[in-house]
Amino acid sequence: VYVRDCQDCKLVVACQQFRTRDCRRLDVFLCCNTQPIIESSTGMKFACFQYNYPELEGQFDAAGLSVYNNNWSNIHDFTPAADVETWSLLPEDAKVSDYVPHPPCRYFPEMEVSADADSSVVPLTLGTRRKQSDESCLVVFYGGRQTRNNVKLYLREVRLKGSYQLVQTKEVKMTIEDAQRVFGNEHDMTNIQQGAVIGLEINGDNCIQVCNEIMGTLFKGRNKSELAFISKSNETAARNIDDFYNFVDMTMS
Question: What InterPro entries does this protein's entry cite (predicted)?
Fold first, then answer.
């Protein structure tokens, strides 16, 4: 998506690449699978894509877009200015409906559109905003037919806890050798090649214990080590997160 010579616009955009040039004062709720780029643009404000309607998830799949590879807040400015703020983030509680209202129901009575963050096809992430806690947990679901459904169920339980933030997500393919380098040899990697893995960074006080408890409760009776990798301690979690996202950056660059 290339936006050029526009001003005072409000957009909800999902794309592989996003770029602006010669733009002023755009508010953008964005899902972008690569790093968004602005050029000769000022007053740009960004937030995480929050939208849902029945066909949307299938349209993401058909377009080859991953809802978990969203770089909405990782903006690259080709033409930074020392004396002008070229871009910033919208408030954390910004709602799509306050910027891009739904079409009136009387004109589109059959349209089932929601901009609620809890039902959004793209998970709402904190992005590059400051984390609320010094403690984060890495949860990586291994590939398989139920992986995406398992991730949705897991994130729903995290949201219900109320005090935890989803910082970032990534979907990437890994070999057994990759996984052993990132997670260590002591973990069960037999399911790693059934499909792309989905990684989640969750932040909040005591989140490692809570994330492990959710995993145990949600998938009771199943071998959790076959489903996912999850940080076990605060001492190792930071390294887990760095190792996984460094691998992602290297793979996707």
Answer: C-CAP_CF_C-like, CAP/MinC_C, CARP_motif, NDK-like_dom_sf, Tubulin-bd_cofactor_C_dom, XRP2
